[in-house]
C-alpha cells in the first residue's frame, strides 16, 4: 500500500499548478496539456482558447478536471498493485 501511495504522489496533479497555467497560458491550452487532455489542448492552441470563450469557461472546470484526473490515476495505480480490482 505504501508503494502504491508513493507512486500516486509522484503522478498526481496539483490544482494550484493547473490554475497558474490557466492564468499564464490558458488561452493556448497550457493547463489542458498539464492535465493530459492533448486533444482539447491542441484545439485550444489552434483556436486561441475558442477565441477566449473556452478559456474563460475553463476557470469553472479546471479544479473538477484535476480531481477527475487524480482519481483516475490513483485507481489505475491501485489496480496495478492489486489493491482494488478493475
UniProtKB/TrEMBL annotation:
Entry's transmembrane regions: 17-35, 41-63
UniProt entry tagged with the keyword NAD: no
Main localization (coarse): membrane
Membrane topology, record value: Multi-pass membrane protein
Localization, UniProt: Membrane
InterPro entries the UniProt entry points to: TM2, TM2D1-3-like
UniProt entry keywords in alphabetical sequence: Membrane, Transmembrane, Transmembrane helix
Keyword Membrane: yes
Cellular-component GO terms for this entry: membrane
Domain TM2, first and last residues per copy: 13-60
Highest taxon in the source lineage: Bacteria
PANTHER family for the chain: BETA-AMYLOID BINDING PROTEIN-RELATED (PTHR21016), TM2 DOMAIN-CONTAINING PROTEIN DDB_G0277895-RELATED (PTHR21016:SF25)
Protein name: TM2 domain-containing protein
Amino acid at each position: 500500500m505504501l508503494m502504491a501511495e508513493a507512486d500516486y504522489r509522484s503522478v498526481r496533479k496539483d490544482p494550484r499548478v493547473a490554475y497558474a497555467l490557466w492564468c499564464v497560458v490558458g488561452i493556448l491550452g497550457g493547463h489542458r496539456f498539464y492535465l493530459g487532455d492533448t486533444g482539447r489542448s491542441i484545439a485550444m492552441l489552434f483556436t486561441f482558447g475558442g477565441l477566449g470563450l473556452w478559456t474563460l469557461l475553463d476557470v469553472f472546470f479546471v479544479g473538477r478536471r484535476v480531481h477527475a484526473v487524480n482519481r483516475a490515476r490513483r485507481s489505475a495505480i491501485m489496480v496495478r498493485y492489486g489493491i482494488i480490482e478493475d
